[in-house]
Specification:
mainly alpha, two-stranded antiparallel ribbon, 2 strands, 1% strand, 17 helices, single chain
Length: 431
């Protein structure tokens, strides 16, 4: 009797274990589907955010909303699950804490900006990294089996934008400025640069989720045509560099080393010297050169912490006009005049240097180096698409940051999501 009961108990346990296994398997599958559709919905919202913001006011703050959610979810997830953070990513958190302390310390000490607008600028400054962390949490279960669902939507968006581009030049559907004797293409976006950036985002996505890059070259070609039609030299240059890197990685079984990236950087400087000279080297080059020169003065005068959030070179510093511009006598420069601040946020590194001094600048550079190291660490010779997508995303942001506030722009959110996808191998780690 006892032997019979033991067998029955054993069978019952086996059945229970089997049911638990099947239930966990089903839950995992359902979760993967939810994560996939979350990504697809976010992709549509972010790619068309600029267009939607013209009709639905809340979309103007979609990237900031995601940043706040990212910060909240990251903190709650960390404490709820008692997760461990890897050393490299712990350094990122510490660097962001340093920037936060430095930025608000300056606000308290010098009072060049109100606390509420300093808070808004704080969200803008750290949203790239907070979204990067959120992506690691939300999309860690985005598996290869769901790639087909995502790739269909990416191809759909590419085809729509390509057909609209053709129709625009045939039927003149959308207006656009004339550059080099040709009308630049912007479609329904506010400026051509945003269309170009979104095309680059779609290019990164199709590389990331395609089974075979060779089978999606026609879509990459369509995106390249749209990119060229925007006539934005910086984005076209970044695209060419990215395509060269993709070609190199497709032919090679080695990842890109720092020395090879240095060569790429040198080529970019040589090719783009005319633009660099115009914006930063010529004495009469305008707002960007003046913002750069003044940021160095500010960093030295307010050594080592800068003037604080929302005080210099940022969107908030223009909207809630900072007294720093008058103090350094650049408030009469075209594009920096109160009420006409069209160029005030056309820089990134001068903003970081001016607002957070040398401490903040070093902290931000360390964060970017850590992300690069994580990308390099995740290289897989058997599946190079993830490495390609993440590497060219970071390169695009760095190239754009020379003459644009790329890491605080709404576009940066989409790159942050891509940089965080598929990088969490250990589920017990937050980052």
């Amino acid at each position: 009797m006892n032997e019979k009961n033991s067998k029955e108990i054993l069978i019952d346990n086996q059945v229970k274990d089997s049911l638990i296994y099947e239930r966990n398997k089903l839950n995992k599958k359902e979760n993967a589907v939810k994560v996939t559709y979350t990504y697809i919905i976010l992709m549509y919202l972010l790619v068309f955010q600029d267009f939607l913001s013209n009709y639905i006011y809340v979309f103007r703050f979609l990237d900031e909303i995601l940043a706040v959610i990212g910060i909240s979810m990251g903190v709650l997830y960390l404490f709820k699950n008692n997760l461990k953070i890897k050393k490299d990513n712990f350094i990122i958190v510490m660097c962001l804490c340093i920037i936060t302390i430095v930025g608000f310390s300056s606000i308290i000490k010098y009072r060049y900006q109100s606390f509420i607008y300093a808070m808004i600028d704080w969200i803008l400054v750290i949203k790239f990294f907070s979204t990067y962390c959120l992506s690691k949490i939300v999309f860690k279960n985005l598996g290869r089996k769901e790639n087909n669902r995502i790739i269909v939507h990416i191809k759909f968006m590419i085809i729509v934008l390509f057909l609209l581009t053709i129709a625009n030049y045939v039927f003149n559907l959308y207006d656009g400025e004339v550059r080099f004797g040709i009308k630049s293409n912007r479609l329904f976006y506010s400026i051509p640069a945003i269309l170009a950036s979104e095309c680059f985002i779609l290019m990164v996505n199709i590389i990331l989720f395609s089974k075979n890059i060779k089978k999606v070259w026609i879509y990459i070609f369509m995106l390249s045509i749209i990119l060229v039609s925007t006539l934005r030299i910086k984005v076209i240059g970044a695209t060419l560099v990215s395509l060269l890197i993709i070609f190199y990685l497709s032919m090679s079984n080695k990842k890109i080393t720092i020395s090879r990236l240095a060569i790429v950087g040198l080529i970019c400087i040589i090719v783009g010297y005319g633009q660099i000279s115009f914006y930063f080297l010529d004495i009469n080059s305008g707002a960007r050169r003046i913002l750069l020169d003044t940021s160095i003065k500010i960093a030295n005068d307010y050594f080592p912490i800068g003037t604080g959030f929302g005080t210099y070179g940022s969107y908030i510093s223009g909207e809630q006009y900072s007294p720093i511009y008058a103090k350094y006598r650049i408030n009469n420069v075209f594009g920096l005049v109160k009420g006409k601040v069209s160029f005030v946020s056309d820089t990134f590194w001068p903003m970081i240097l001016g607002q957070f001094g040398y401490i903040g600048l070093i902290s931000y550079i360390v964060c970017i180096i850590i992300i690069f190291k994580n990308i390099q660490r995740n290289y897989d010779s058997q599946n190079k698409k993830i490495y390609m997508a993440q590497l060219i995303s970071l390169i695009f942001l760095l190239i754009s940051s020379v003459s644009d506030a790329s890491f605080v722009h709404s576009i940066s959110i989409q790159f942050a999501i891509i940089l965080g996808i598929h990088t969490t191998k250990n589920k017990e780690e937050l980052l």
